[in-house]
Amino acid sequence: MSWLRENRWRIAAVVAALTVVVVGKQWYRDASANDLRWILAPTAQLVSWTTGHDFVYESGQGWLNTDVMFLIAPACAGVHFALAALLALTLGSLAGMTSWQQTAKRLALATLLAYAGTLVINTIRITVAVETHRPDMHRMQGILLYLVGLCGLHALARVIEGRKLRNVKWLAIPLCAYVLITLVLPLANGAAQRDDFVRHATAVLVACFGVVAIATFYELVRWSLRRNS
What we know:
The protein is mainly alpha-helical. About 70% of the residues lie in helices and about 5% in strands. Helix 3 (about 35-50) crosses helix 5, helix 4 runs parallel beside helix 6 (about 140-160) and helix 7 (about 170-190) packs antiparallel against helix 8.
């Protein structure tokens, strides 16, 4: 009981974040472009600034530019990233959640950072897609950018809490958050029946392995340099 009492606000924060993730993902499945205006409209404006192409709202579809024939549709909203970011940021801030005031403050900050981070990462992802005209690379580009963004946001949360990034173990939380959003929850909703799910799952797992491999190699190089110094 003492452990539960000591960690009650941390437990409440995790439950709240997971509830938002599950409810948000279910809501996003049927959300229209108008429902997603809160995130699609600023994303379209930022993409317009970065690419020089104006995107105009088309009712029921999204934001369209006919010059480059690119539509910023609900599928481009980045809601999955926002949900994963909220979870990763919440878990990265647990150390300071010792009272309801501190918990509320950190959850509010996590929400703000998740939203801002989604706008930035999504703008980069769509800008790259518009400029490269490579729809075949769009999936992998998005996965890699999302993983890097999640790792960066989780690292930021840990730094704010004064926790050092001592080894690659800290990557487990952002990577698991992304896998939960993109693979585990879709599987629970019957996504395995989709023709492209295996391809998507393979891309996600390969990208996660690549991030871990690069981080591990970096740590080995650092360890070797310290040992020889």
